[in-house]
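Consider the tokenized backbone below.
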């Protein structure tokens, strides 16, 4: 049975740590690989990224697999969350062996952050090592193939897309070959996910189904509400959309990097404008290697590349649909569901 989420890729687990109230509106999400790690790569296209250990994922470099990927709020400060994940992995002997003693390991934990500083009211309320540990512990405690909580959780707690509340979303598909491709996204963009002319989410136009447009009066009321709340919430200067796209196919690092790159197309379909100088858009790719590609077909990777972009688009739509409205000391951001109830 599948749950239409990243955890449909066998061996991957997802955990969130969420902080709200008393000035907090932020959190951390951890994607935990199976023991022994997963082949990993990254593609960064935003002009203002905040990342950790991404150079290690270059196909020219020695690191082949990682034990976890961290997505976090808190801008560059929030990258401290990765330290808590590293400590948890080290305690379990998980990482690259660097000595004769099995305990001598260095976990490689790539991380990327979104800008959500001050959205709960306190600029200094941001994830730290303890938040990262809480998120990886939640991932480890989850059952294999468990549903992934979506919306205002983990790294998506303080996420905003344009002037509408963002969050975490996930989606998956099984290809005709039996290979699974899935994505998890933190939708937090300077651009908008909603067409201001119609009220339809851009990503819905690429989902392969008939799109139902909001009634004119519903859309007009939504635009009035957005104008009111925008006046109360100064748009923050920095944003970022993060994604992890994963497959159970046996990919090389170079193939995984290609997957990360084409998955950015999924962001571009769902967010306009995208990859700006004040975005830090970053996509990680993970491959667990459980299913072989057709060695006789040099283009066998193509269907995985196409599906990865599709799953990122779908995950962004789900993130925005699952988000709940926020109205607090740091600002007010309506949810899409609140603005377009019944769609």
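A designed sequence for it:
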């Amino acid at each position: 049975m599948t749950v239409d989420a990243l955890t449909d890729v066998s061996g991957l687990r997802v955990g969130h740590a969420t902080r709200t109230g008393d000035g907090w509106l932020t959190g951390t999400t951890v994607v935990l690989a199976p023991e022994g790690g997963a082949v990993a790569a990254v593609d960064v296209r935003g002009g203002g990224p905040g990342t950790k250990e991404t150079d290690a994922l270059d196909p020219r470099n020695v690191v082949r697999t990682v034990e976890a990927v961290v997505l976090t709020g808190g801008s560059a400060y929030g990258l401290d969350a990765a330290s808590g994940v590293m400590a948890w992995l080290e305690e379990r002997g998980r990482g690259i062996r660097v000595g004769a003693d099995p305990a001598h390991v260095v976990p490689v934990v790539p991380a990327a952050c979104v800008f959500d500083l001050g959205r709960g009211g306190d600029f200094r309320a941001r994830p730290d090592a303890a938040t990262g540990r809480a998120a990886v512990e939640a991932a480890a405690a989850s059952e294999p193939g468990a549903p992934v909580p979506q919306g205002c959780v983990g790294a998506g707690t303080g996420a905003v897309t344009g002037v509408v509340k963002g969050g975490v979303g996930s989606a998956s598909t099984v290809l005709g070959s039996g290979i699974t491709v899935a994505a998890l996204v933190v939708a937090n963009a300077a651009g908008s996910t909603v067409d201001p002319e119609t009220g339809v989410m851009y990503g819905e136009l690429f989902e392969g189904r008939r799109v139902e447009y909001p009634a004119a009066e519903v859309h007009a009321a939504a635009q009035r509400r957005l104008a009111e709340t925008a006046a109360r919430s100064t748009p923050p200067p920095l944003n970022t959309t993060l994604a992890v796209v994963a497959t159970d196919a046996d990919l090389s690092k170079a193939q995984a990097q290609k997957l990360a790159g084409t998955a950015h197309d999924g962001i571009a379909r769902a967010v306009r404008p995208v990859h700006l100088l004040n975005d830090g858009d970053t996509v990680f790719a993970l491959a667990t290697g459980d299913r072989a590609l057709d060695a006789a077909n040099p283009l066998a990777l193509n269907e995985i590349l196409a599906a990865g972009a599709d799953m990122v688009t779908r995950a962004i739509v789900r993130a925005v649909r699952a988000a709940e409205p926020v109205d607090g000391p740091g600002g007010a951001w309506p949810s899409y569901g609140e603005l377009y109830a019944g769609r």
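The two ends are 27 Å apart (CA to CA).
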